[in-house]
Amino acid sequence: MINLTKPVRRISSGAVREAGKIREVVIILRPPNVIGFRAKGCRKEYQLTAEVCYLMAVKADVAAQKREKQAKKKRANTHTNVLGVYRPTLKRGTNCTTPGRQNDT
Description:
The chain is α+β, with helices and mostly antiparallel strands. Helix content is 27%, strand content 30%.
């Protein structure tokens, strides 16, 4: 790998809405570890350090895995009958009579 000694600018394929238009994103790598983002044709630049970008990417990945795990768990807890119609499971003692008990009404 080559060490970063001078600023490098690249246009990404991503697009954002800035100043009322859809614009490409320009990414600027500056030594020693600064990453800048700006919309093409605009002067305003947003900067982050490489460490912060890395931590944000890790947190986003962990959050996505957590959402996927929760969705999988939620799908596993739903029950369907033979026709594939959703039938929620009733908890014991809620809006139903439990087998073997007499209703005291």
